[in-house]
Amino acid sequence: METVSLNGAVTGEGEGLVLLHPIGLDQSFWGALPVMLGQGRRILRLDLRGHGRSDIGSARAPIEAYAADVVEAIRHYGMGKPTVLGLSFGGMIAQTLALNHPGSISKLIACGCPGGIPEEARPVLRERGLAAERDGMESIVPTTIERWFTSSFTSPIVERVRERLRTDTVESWSDGWHAISNFNAFPRLASLDMPTLIVSGEKDAATSPAASKALAEAIPNAQLVTLPGAPHMMQLETSGLFIETVGQFLAGHPVDAA
């Protein structure tokens, strides 16, 4: 499978942690997490293929290709056998990586993502990409912001997200949604035997708490936590609670489920 060399940023030394961002964003949208969890850890933030400063690669690449890119990046950046944390699209890629390359990671953290896309929902998700192909990236920004944040959140970070989306290429956005539309890890999730944390947002309009619960139930011994008041972009709007939850899991402590 053709892989893309991913642009990444490494900070710190110690136990490895790899961060995989949502569709349309890049490695800079993790809030204070790299700093707050950086003590004693080597953190690798990646731009997924077609995002940030990473090349786009082949058109309509499947999610398995995105995961293969990450495996190559883990090797390239000397991350050993790290924990992989993915959010939204990044969480689906993280699941795929754990299934297809289980020897490459030690722990899995999947946030704001399901374990698969139902057949009836696939055309809807492909349409999110096709809409941008027809009408440009500006056309998808309002509805995306509505899905990602609560209406009461007025931080400047929302404008940063808007600008990032506006400047994405239509090709990378549409390719990502086509990859998402075909994602289905459920048939194989029972084979995972690594420590796993599933993080859900109570107010996530893109991935419901019920979908996160179904994902956690499909993975043996997975821990599930639902963050009160958290939307889809939980790492930005409820960053303190998100960082605390991830930190507890990384430290080997039980995470308080909600």
Characterization of the model:
The chain has 258 residues and is an alpha/beta fold. The protein has helices spanning 33-36, 63-76, 89-100, 122-135, 141-148, 156-167, 170-181, 209-218, 234-237, 239-250; strands spanning 8-11, 15-20, 41-46, 83-87, 107-111, 196-201, 223-227. It is globular and about 45 Å long. Helix 2 (63-76) crosses helix 3 (89-100) and helix 4 (122-135) packs antiparallel against helix 7 (170-181). Strand 6, helix 8 (209-218) and strand 7 form a beta-alpha-beta unit. The mean pLDDT is 97. Helix content is 40%, strand content 14%. A seven-stranded mixed β-sheet has the order 1-3-2-4-5-6-7, with helices on both faces. It has a domain at 8-116 and 182-250: Rossmann fold (3-Layer(aba) Sandwich), CATH 3.40.50.1820.
Question: Concise description?
Answer:
This protein has about 260 residues and is of the alpha/beta class. Helix content is about 40%, strand content about 15%.
